[in-house]
Amino acid sequence: TGICFGPMDPTDRTSKTHHRRLTTVAHEFTHILGMNSYDIPYYYNPKTGRPRTSRNEYNKPPEENVLCVNGQRQTVEKASSDTIVQVTTANGYVAYEVVTETVRQVVRNQFGCQDLIGGRLENQPTGDDDCYGSHWDHRLYNNEFMAAVYTGSTQYVTALTLALLEDSGW
Fold this sequence. Notes:
Elements: H1 16-33, E1 63-67, E2 73-77, E3 84-88, E4 94-98, H2 101-111, E5 119-120, H3 159-167
Antiparallel strand pairs: 1-2, 3-4, 4-5
Helix pairs in contact: 2-3
């Protein structure tokens, strides 16, 4: 596979298009590095080197039928509750939050609230078979380069995504 930039001049490093292209490549590589709903059940504890979620004899996490962000029930490989949890938002919607140690502390620091439990993921599945998204919720983290929606404003690699990558143990 490759990356097709279409009719753009790859030597042009000054344009807004070039910056957006680099951000897009970094965004997609971050999915490969672990910010992907399918990878979350396979995270390791970076301190112990052990899987965060128990595995069976085939090295697979347990499957469970859960309520997804689209309101449908689905059987998924379920990550441990010290990795991701299902929450109900104030307006009654199902959401999922990454609750690993570093992610939780970054979110608490960012919002100045020590009661927050984790980093909210997008409220739509990223792919057809996803139960929850593979991006941060754009309403809370709109300038984060791993947010679900590109708003046209400058996107930043933040401590939140770096915390997730650290906590993945990968």
